[in-house]
Amino acid sequence: MSPGMEPAAMLPIAAVPIAIASIAASSTIPIERRRGERAATVFTIGKISFDGRSLPCMVRDLSEGGMRIQLPAPPPPGARVLIEMRGLDPRLARVRWAVGHEAGLSFDLRCCPADIFAARTSRSGRIARQPRFPLRRAVPLLIDNRPIPAMIENISVGGARLTLSEPLEDGRQGVLGLTLGDRDGVAGTICWARDDSCGFRFVQPISSVTLAVTLDSVGLS
Asked: What does R_g of the chain's alpha carbons equal in angstroms?
């Protein structure tokens, strides 16, 4: 499988459960939009970049003129951001409002939600990949109880790209020696392999909040 395709928020770690509960409780805030504009309800991971940082966020609804997102610490109203999600290329936007863990974004250029949802699946039946975040960290990859040195190149909520010390074939199952939230080690499967690189798909996806904490712990921007 191609490495670019997949088959069809900054808080202390101790505060993650609180953040998740608080985010879930704040889902009734209306998004500001132009008269007559309808929003499609979605629940997918996005990538928001501002102030030199790139963070995961949860996209809750999408319209032609903007979207409503959730993340532990949204940028303030008036902030300029770059937002992307599966099927939507990076797009400039402005924060119109921010309340609690939610924010409403207004796009510089309007979009067509139907085209975005259609673009999520290519003609070959494959689904466009989720946003990736750079993360360089040396970790062991445990295969058949044997640790193999690996370097994480990037990560998403569903998996990671690795550089390995030795080639491995796809389909191999293992455990990545990475702490994500309360998970000490992440089980997964090698979904593609090429030379010394591979894609490692997590058995259980991680939350956007957990991913944000992981990125923050290594001081990524």
From this structure: 18
Element (H, E) at 40: strand 40-50
Dihedral over alpha carbons 180, 181, 184, 187 (to 10 degrees): -50
Give the other-Cβ count within 10 Å of 148's Cβ.
17
Ranges in the chain, pLDDT < 70: 1-39, 117-129, 216-221
Strand partners, 88: 85
Are 69 and 46 in contact by the 8 Å Cβ rule? The answer is: yes
Contact 135, 154 (CB under 8 A): yes
Report how far apart, in Å, the C-alpha atoms of 182 and of each of 11, 58, 185 are: 14, 20, 9
CB burial of residue 31 (10 Å; 0-12, 13-18, 19+):
buried
Report yes or no on whether pTM surpasses 0.70.
no
